[in-house]
Amino acid sequence: MTDLPKLYSGPDGQARCHWCGAAPEFLHYHDTEWGFPVADDFRLFEKICLEGFQSGLSWRTILAKRENFRAAFVGFDFHRIAQFTAQDVQRLLQDAGIVRHRGKIEAVIHNARQACTLAQQEGSLAAYFWRFEPQPDSLAAPQSASTSPDSVALSKALKKLGWKFVGPTTVYAFMQAMGLINDHAQGCVVRSQVAASRKKFSVPC
């Protein structure tokens, strides 16, 4: 039998996913963002980009720099980022507030151009991403997997469209965070809140 994920007792005494006790800034992120369904294209694009930046790093590093990333990448408005030039790449490489990795910076700009095309073709990024929402009975136990058949499928689909830094693990973390799945641990006080939010959520089409 698989052991259930450990839980963390928050400041209010209620149980939460164990990982949110690893750093002070994780608690608010866990309670107000992680797993709640998102239909906003800029937030979806931001998250998939930040997951790409996280590759090889910790989410704490990226979360601490998130406001700097938002400023550097104009609120992750992919229409504006698509117009970035080589001069912008050089500017971003000098920005100590973000992760100065040329490949990842160039991938955001490249993916922004792909996002413009995809949003035009599909009506929105949200309509496309939510097409890959898994069936609940196909999911592994909460926080017991780092990929899923649906994250593999979305990863392959995005790569076929030319996107970069969108491997299955990156995509799975994106799906967890943006509410395409409810991966809060059994017993976590936020799991039921996310479930209620998902129930009210209108899947973009």
UniProtKB/TrEMBL annotation:
InterPro entries given in the database record: Adenine_glyco (IPR005019), DNA-3mA_glycosylase (IPR052891), DNA_glycosylase (IPR011257)
Top-rank taxon, per record: Bacteria
Name of protein: DNA-3-methyladenine glycosylase I
Organism: Roseateles rivi
